[in-house]
Amino acid sequence: GAISKHAWAFLRDFPRVFPYLRPYWKLGISSASLLALGALAGLLSPWPLAILIDGVLTHGRLPTLLRFLGGLNTTTLLFVAVFAGVLVTAVEHGVGMGQAYVDTALEQRMGLDVRSDLFRHIHRLSQAYHDGARKGMLMYVVTQSDSVGSVTVSVGPILQSLGMLI
Fold first, then answer.
1. Which of 28, 69, 92, 109 has the most CB within a 10 Å radius?
2. Is the dihedral of CA 131, 135, 137, 141 positive or negative?
């Protein structure tokens, strides 16, 4: 009921975010690219375990994509598995750190633009309006307006999670 009504209202109002995103399109593309790279790195994380379990511990057949490692002895496979695990983890965390930086920059810049627009709008309102307006509510609206950036950068991880799930 109430939750779905708010979700539809969010989706209806979401296009209003695009004018604030447009000046930072390079950051948006960087964020989306890092998101995709992070998803790919996340999909690679089980492969070192596959080498360790299938090739080292059980001496079984490696998965099809890893068959080129089949001629290596157990010790070398162990080193390959450990090195691959460290490498994949380093890539995942490096991409995550880069994405956090880009998303924070995008969120802060969009939030500043929204707050600036609201501040300009409040200053254009008549003195009669301000005499009757609740000042605390105006301050609350201006300070909470940076949620536009938060919502924008949270859409990507939601889509990434859906993609990983699929």
1. 28
2. positive
Q: Answer for the pair 27, 106: CB distance below 8 angstroms, yes or no.
A: yes
pLDDT digits (tens, 9 = 90+) for 52-74: 777 777 776 776 666 677 677 77
- Cβ contacts of 33-36, under 8 Å, gap ≥ 24: 34/95, 34/98, 34/99, 34/102, 35/99, 35/156, 35/157, 35/159, 35/160, 36/160
How many of the other CB atoms lie within 10 Å of CB of 162? 9
Residue 103: count of CB within 10 angstroms of its CB: 23
Task: Give 132's contacts (C-beta < 8 A, 6+ positions apart).
Answer: none
pTM, two decimal places? 0.74
Please report how the helices 147-165 and 74-124 are oriented relative to each other, as an axis angle in degrees rounded to 10.
150
